[in-house]
Amino acid sequence: MIDLHCHILPGLDDGALDLDDSLAMACQAERDGIEAVCATPHIRHDHNVRIEEIVARVDSLQAHLDAEGIGVRVLPGGELAQTQADDLSDTQLRSVTLGGNGGSRGEAGGAGGDGGWILLEPAPGPLGDGLSEVVRRLAQRGLKTIIAHPERHAGADFSERLRRLADDGALIQWTAEFIAESEPEGFVMGLARDGLVDLLSSDAHSSHAGRPVALAAGFTHLATVRSAEQIAWSADLAPRAIVRGEPVTRLP
């Protein structure tokens, strides 16, 4: 499994407090069977994340993981705020794609492209027209989009907006812990049956509290409404293609 959304870089945004916290998060990932984690610091106005430093910070953390014998790879990325997407240059956007520059190091499944998938954080509140507009503008700039944690942005027309985003080519990434705790016959699992739960990620911020770096329980619960083929696509095939910057064809 590959975790596409994790705030594992130490002392950067609201994620890992320090190096020890990052190492502990990587240990959580290893115990859960996660082979690679995309480091996705917040790229938004209230966090002073220097995009040009992300790859070096990832390489530094990877060196510490290797020294400690922790068998998890860290890949560069970012969680780009909807409200900041139009402010970034093409070079900056490419620098925060999931796995961007990672293929050259042979991580998470072999060599690949220079990144092509943006993890996009919706603006606060229910999903709105502005999100779809940003997805389309990113597509015009040659970038594909993954919508982060939609469970935090529900509104009266939630399922319809998710379907429109999917029809526009976006993938929908839910928080694994949220899916694991969803009612088996509830609304969210109904969305999963309808093909609107594409990916699961931890969105973990620390080993001390909150969500762990874990995906397995979420996929186990998702498997009650999705086929084995669909789970293999969500847990392995699609994330592996994403970090290589490759196109992904959604399963029916």
Radius of gyration: 17 Å
Tell me, what is the CATH class? Alpha Beta
Please provide the count of β strands: 9
What number of domains?
Answer: 1
Span from first to last CA? 21 Å
Mean pLDDT reading: 93
Class inferred from helices and paired strands: alpha/beta
CATH topology: TIM Barrel
Element order: H for helix, E for strand: EHEEHEEHEHEHEHHEHH
Query: How many DSSP H or I helices?
Result: 9
Known CATH architecture: Alpha-Beta Barrel
CATH superfamily: Metal-dependent hydrolases
Spatial arrangement of strands, main beta sheet: 3-5-6-7-8-9
Please report which band the strand proportion falls in: under 5%, 5-15%, 15-25%, 25-35%, 35-45% or over 45%.
5-15%
> Helix share of residues?
25-40%
Q: What composes the largest sheet? A: 6 strands, parallel
Shape: globular
Overview of the molecule:
The protein has 252 residues and is α/β, with parallel strands linked by helices. It has one domain (2-243): Metal-dependent hydrolases (TIM Barrel). It contains 9 helices and 9 strands. The strands form 2 sheets. A 6-stranded parallel sheet has the order 3-5-6-7-8-9, with helices on both faces. α3 links the parallel β5 (79-81) and β6. It starts with a strand and ends in a 9-residue tail after the last helix. The model is unreliable at 102-107 and 109-113 (pLDDT under 50).
